[in-house]
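@channel sequence for tomorrow's demo:
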Amino acid sequence: MHMQEKSAKSANLIEVAMKLMNGIRGKRTALSGSLRLAHPREPLRIRKEAAAAVETKLRQQWRRGGRPTWTPHDENAYDVVERIRKETERRNRNNVTRTAAYWSVFRSYPELHWALLAHMVSRNGGWSMTDLRGEWLPKLLDARTAAAVFRMLESCNALIFRDAYPQLRLYEETRRTGRNLFPLLPAFGVSAFMAPFWERFRIDGDSAMLTAALIVNEQHVIEWRVVQDPTYRDDAAIAAAMFSQRVLQLNQIVFPLGAPSDGGSGGIPRLAGRILERFDDLAERIAFGKSLYAMLYAYPKVLNGVLAFAEAVPHSGSRADYWPSLFTADQADQEDQGVKEERARLNSVQIKAGGRPDHSDRTAGGNAGTRWFSPRLEDAWDDQPLGPVNDYDWLGSDGLASLRHMRSLRPPLVFDMTSEHELGQRKLQAATLAKDKLLR
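structure tokens (generated this afternoon):
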């Protein structure tokens, strides 16, 4: 019986290796898929004259000593600040509430491009959090490491929301009341870097420049409070987990293009996205965010697909939100592991060249037992309060060097991630089987 089990494990490992090779060959199809999605293309640029005007304002602010100190100057302003603070704290409860808040802002004010970008990136943050309690990572990471990685992901998400959401709400209140409320930005600890960009946006409505500025700002927010924080930077387990993800190219941000069909074998959306190579590199994270934004707004097919998905599918944190025929959020759907591995071996997804993932070879029409477990956030993790935050201004340590990121926006050429994303799951599956084989 033991020999039969070892033989089955070896067969599964060989089969997964073959699927990995298929996935690697599928990389070639990403280029053709990207070319189709990239046409037509809309112009997206940061206007030089607008950027120069903002730079002049920033240099003047810098000479005056950076961010001004805010003190309540009238009762109405105090009420606005307190209301937004309470709302921010309430909606910053977890990844699901944050993601919904971004979407609500975007639906009301679609000129706030960053709100849609943040909504989609926040969805990915939730999927990464639940992966830690999903099909593969619990077999590769010990519980302490998984909890530490979750705390890091949650801190990044919560800090960005804490900084950015009040900015979005001040814009909403400015529009609603007709009063310029951006002088209240210091009340929320927002960097002096952002004030001239919001003032300019109020005048000319240049969504591209404002979005790029928010990307630069929010990456600086987490740089000094998380990435360079010794709590996370010096944790060997976190470092090992992040290194493994980089080697396997698993730091993927994916945007589903359309909603999954109900019941259809081929009714799952293609994915557009990118792979972040080095999370610990500030300049790379900024360039990555700008690339995602340009992909989203320079290519109408991507934007329309993302909007269709976001409108139709509420965020739960489970990857079943976008690929329900590959993932399941319900633990009850899980069969005996040995049976499931054999079914997965027989029913692996094939990515046709340039086409949609084809599930027609699955028995029982994609039986739940063949799916990978991806829990909802509420079933995976308890809420984690953010705690006190030091509101120092990152502009003081960076000077004006970050203005170099405000020069251009370049959409990526290769961004069809459909095959690459499934390949990432296959890599995790192979790593799990290999570890299991070594331990036997």
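heads up for whoever presents: The radius of gyration is 23 Å.
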